[in-house]
Design brief:
A 4-stranded mixed sheet has the order 2-1-3-4, sandwiched between helices. The chain is an alpha+beta fold. It has 9 helices and 4 strands. A hairpin with a 4-residue loop joins strand 3 and strand 4.
Amino acid sequence: MKSIVAKALFNSYSYAEYRKLVTDLLSEGKSTGDQQSESLTHYTSLNEARMNRLEKTIKISEDVISKLQQLNNHYIWLVISEGWCGDAAQILPIINKMALESNKKVDVRIVLRDQNNELMSQYLTNGGRAIPKVVIICKEAGIVRADWGPRPKGATELMTNYKRDFGVIDEKIKTDLQLWYLADKGISVQEELLQIMENIKYNRL
């Protein structure tokens, strides 16, 4: 496992590098990932606009900032993502801003799912390659302490209930999911990730 994580980290991007990669590919009419299609490029373009907006509007709570700065170790949040992923577009700007506010206690690195099959296979969700996934690594010990994702609990429940009731994931639930993120304002991501970090700090994980 250590070698898989080390290999992924070696091939990882900073948040700024990831954003530039996605933007550059879009300028060529492409998206990240093994598959290329008009719909994936369309989703990537929508995500680009979402991330631009979130970078300007997202606020990290004072309580979250304080507790992140009081972590007793330094961590890497290794995020498995792709440019076309709607959940990743909603979550990555929050994660990045949390790291920026952490007084260097947290460093964000991003890897592409389709280029890191070994890593992705360690973090499946119900057997599927759902993203984003955040792998939390203690820098000092060089070990994985926890993981989170692919979406906050409230968003997961929304998707699960819709699929149970209607048997499909269609454009309506995709729109409803984006509205859920808009109403949540990044609070759930902050609270859930902070809870994991607090559990690690106090050896509850």
